[in-house]
Amino acid sequence: MPTVAPKLLAEEIIEAAPAASILRVSLVYGWERDEPDSKWLNFFASCAHRLRQGEPVQAPQDQWSTPVLVDDFAAVTVASLSTKTPTLLHLGGPQRISRADWAETIADGLGVPRSLVARVPKATSRYASRPANTCLTSTLLDRFTTTRGLHIRSVAEGTTALTKAAS
């Protein structure tokens, strides 16, 4: 008997429920405090804290995602609780970006030199076990957000919002 992945099994159970929706989410990011007992900050927060202190950041140049700002994730989640929600939505940010390009965007948003970002192969980073491509796209999401007056921010827009809020 083939083994079914836990996420797929969960989706199959949810799909069988009446009026259920599934929201598949890409990499979610936002501001987190850097506390001594923090084991793993999200990529944005980890980069921002280190770059603000003038510390270098290693970021894979060969791992791609479609990051989505936590505030945008929350807005879409709330909107998806209404009726007339598609059964399955892929929620990813509007751009495909490598972690290295993203780290450089964070450096730009903080006004620190991009030279603090070291572009490295995924295989030599802490992300070695992650897939090279974790991007999500959805034409349904575009229609869903547009009809509800929502806007999913790009990495640059999200970085600007977060760095202003953290100042």
Mean of the pLDDT scores?
A: 88
Report the order of strands and helices.
HEEHEEEHEEHEEHH
Please, how many helices?
6
- Quaternary class: single chain
What's the Cα radius of gyration?
17 Å
Quantity of strands, as a count:
9
Main β-sheet, in a few words?
Answer: 3 strands, mixed
> How large a portion of the residues is in β-strands, by DSSP E?
15-25%
Alpha-beta classification: alpha/beta
> Could you tell me how far the N terminus lies from the C terminus, measured between alpha carbons in angstroms?
55 Å
Q: Given the C-alpha coordinates, what overall shape results?
A: globular
> Roughly how much helix do the residues carry, as a percent range?
25-40%
Could you characterize the architecture of this molecule?
It is a single chain. The chain is an alpha/beta fold and 167 residues long. It contains six helices and nine strands; from the N terminus they run H-E-E-H-E-E-E-H-E-E-H-E-E-H-H. The protein has helices at 6-15, 43-52, 70-80, 99-110, 139-147, 155-166, and strands at 22-25, 28-29, 57-60, 64-65, 68-69, 88-91, 97-98, 117-120, 133-134. A three-stranded mixed beta sheet has the order 7-4-9. Helix 2 crosses helix 4 and helix 4 (99-110) crosses helix 6. It is globular and about 50 Å long. The model has no long low-confidence stretch (mean pLDDT 88).
What tags apply to this protein structure?
167 residues; alpha/beta; three-stranded mixed β-sheet; two-stranded parallel ribbon; 6 helices; 9 strands; globular
